[in-house]
Amino acid sequence: TETAKRKSIKTSSLTEIHGIGPKKAKALLTHFGGLAALKAAERRDIEAVKGISLADAASVWNHFHGEDGKA
User: Is the sign of the CA dihedral 44, 22, 18, 10 positive or negative?
Assistant: First the structure.
């Protein structure tokens, strides 16, 4: 379905982040309810997701905000 295809695209974009595979990507999207909420999340909120390490959370946050938070 179209919805499944969109979710697949979102998940695959997250899997481009070092350390994030399909399982972690799905956990992140499920926890936040979508990519927009994940992008808007604080690093500490990402760290709170079950199965996401501190290093994973930093990688995800940096992916959306840049290492200095100005991307």
Answer: negative
Model pLDDT, residue 70 = 46
Residues in the chain predicted with pLDDT less than 70, given as ranges, are: 1-12, 67-71
**Residue-wise DSSP of 1-40:** -HHHHHHHHHHHHHTTSTT--HHHHHHHHHHHTSHHHHHH
> What is the Cα–Cα distance from 41 to 38, expressed in whole angstroms?
5
User: Does the model's pTM come out above 0.85?
Assistant: no
Q: At 15, phi and psi to the nearest 5?
A: -70, -5
